[in-house]
Amino acid sequence: MRSTHPRRRRGFTLIELLVVMGILVLLAVLTGITVSQVSENARLSSGVNQVTASLGTARSLAIKKNRPVMLLFLVTVDPERPQDGERVVMQLAESTGQIHTRYPDLQWYDERYVPIIGLPTVELPEGINVAGPVNTGYRALDCPGVGDGDEFWITQPGGEWRSQAGELYTQEIGRQIGVIFSPTGQVVTRNIQGAGGSGSIIWPFFDGNFDRRANIENPLGYSGVLQYVAYDAIGDEPDVFPVQWLAVYDDGLLRETKGDDGWIGESGECARVEAITNWVNQFGVPILFNRYTGIAEVYQP
Question: Measured between alpha carbons, how far is 79 from 270 in angstroms, rounded to an integer?
Answer without folding.
Answer: 29
